[in-house]
UniProtKB/TrEMBL annotation:
Domain UspA positions: 1-141
Domain of life: Bacteria
Organism: Sporomusa sphaeroides DSM 2875
Annotated Pfam families: Usp
UniProt-listed SUPFAM superfamilies: Adenine nucleotide alpha hydrolases-like
Family affiliation: Belongs to the universal stress protein A family.
Official protein name in the record: Universal stress protein/MSMEI_3859
InterPro entries membership: Rossmann-like_a/b/a_fold, Universal_stress_UspA, UspA
CDD domains per the UniProt record, alphabetical: USP-like
Xref: Gene3D superfamilies: HUPs
Length: 144
C-alpha cells in the first residue's frame, strides 16, 4: 500500500515523532523510507550566493547532516531500506516536487517545525504540503 514513504526532517521534536511513526508504518507495509532535510537559506536561493561566506554554507550543510543522523538513529535496527537526502530551497515546494518526481506513496511529517512562525495552529510548510502534495500526507500532531 505504501511502497515509498517520504519523511521531511527539520530537527524538531514533531519531525522526529514523524520519523518514529514512519518506521512503524514502514515495518507494517514493507515500505522504503527517505529522510529528507531541506536547507532554506538565501545563500542557496539568491543568485548572489557567492557573497555569503563559505563558512556559513558549510555550517548549514553540517547542521543538515546532524539532523539526518539524529533521525537515522530511529531506524538503527530497521530491516527495511532507509536513505537520507539533503536539498536546498523552500521546504514546502521541495517536498511536494520531490514526492511527485519520485512517486512517493505517502508523506509523513510533523505538524509544526522549528521556526517561530510555525508555532501557529499548523505550520506553514505542513499546510502547503497538505494542499499541494500529489500523494496522501499524514501529519503527526505531537511526540506522543
Amino acid at each position: 500500500m505504501f511502497r515509498k514513504i517520504l519523511v521531511p526532517i527539520d530537527g524538531s521534536t514533531e519531525a522526529l515523532a514523524a520519523a518514529k511513526y514512519s518506521r512503524k508504518i514502514a515495518e507494517k507495509f514493507g515500505s522504503s523510507v527517505t529522510l529528507l532535510h531541506i536547507i532554506q537559506h538565501s545563500a542557496y536561493i539568491m543568485s548572489g550566493a557567492h557573497a555569503v561566506p563559505s563558512s556559513v554554507i558549510e555550517s548549514l550543510d553540517e547542521r543538515g547532516k546532524e539532523v539526518l543522523e539524529q533521525a537515522s538513529e530511529i531506524f538503527q535496527d530497521f530491516d527495511g531500506y532507509v536513505t537520507t537526502r539533503i536539498e536546498y530551497g523552500h521546504p514546502g515546494i521541495k517536498i511536494t516536487e520531490i514526492s511527485k518526481e519520485n512517486n512517493y506513496s505517502l508523506i509523513i511529517m510533523g505538524r509544526r517545525g522549528i521556526s517561530d512562525v510555525a508555532k501557529l495552529l499548523i505550520g506553514s510548510v505542513s499546510n502547503y504540503v497538505l494542499h499541494y502534495a500529489a500523494c496522501p500526507t499524514l501529519i503527526i500532531r505531537d511526540s506522543d
